[in-house]
Amino acid sequence: MENTTSEIRSFNRFYTSHLDILTQHYLDSDYSLTEVRIIYEISHHKIITAQKITEILNLDKGYLSRILKRFLKENLIAKVSSNEDKRAFNIALTDLGNELFKSLNNKVDEQIKQKIERLNFSEKDILVNSMQTVKKLLSEKQLVPSDITYRHQLNPGDIGYIIYLHGYIYGKESDFSSDFEKYVIKTFHNFLENYSAENDRIWMAEYNNKIIGCIAIQHQTKEEAQLRWFLLDPAFRGLGIGKKLLTDALDFCKETKFKNVFLLTTSMQNKALEMYKQAGFTLTESTEVTQWGKTFQDERYDLKL
Hints:
This protein has 305 residues and is an alpha+beta fold. It is 48% helix and 22% strand.
């Protein structure tokens, strides 16, 4: 916890300094960062109440009132009568206020372009995805299923990243040795060598364009398929992602008219085993083995379709 707090504070110092937001006059204008944020919220909402601005920016009402009085005096904003309550009024930008916002907005765009122009496409993706992750993790809004996207079209780099996820997650959760990653590499080599678009498929769950879960169906014969590489990043469990991936995989097996689906797993994968059993898989083989630095039951589960 101590190190986490220290790193967050270090990032805050870097970020505020790097974006030049500590100065009294933001972007060489006559306005502070807070005042510019207020102008942004008014522009973004077109019409907004003072109460809504205080809620969004967590500002003191008296402080906001003084800023709005200045904006009124400078003809940046205008009061607009509320249709719902004639005693209340909303706030909108005037033509002058809109001109100021556009000018500041263009300056921000130019400032950011200058700061990232030295970055290549990969570094820009990392930067944007990292910022989106920070926003999600530190916001009060929790992740919801709609934050996750799904696809089954393979893109360059997907297989390599899925192999990495297996090595990393199984290494952390099951304490498997690096030999497990070698095993996963071999299984994917076999999959790609015998890949059939009609009978084989990999589904990927993504968050911020980054793979966080996967599952696959690999045909073995015309009537039998193997369910493989069912994996989900622990940070995304509890959102129904695993259930959707498993359901999509089994629906594909039914559509392809496989008569039997089997999977090979270990007795250590308790959460996955629960899902397999709920889907109708039954244990058909179990053998004690010692591999990947651990001793466990190597198990096979089958599902008749």
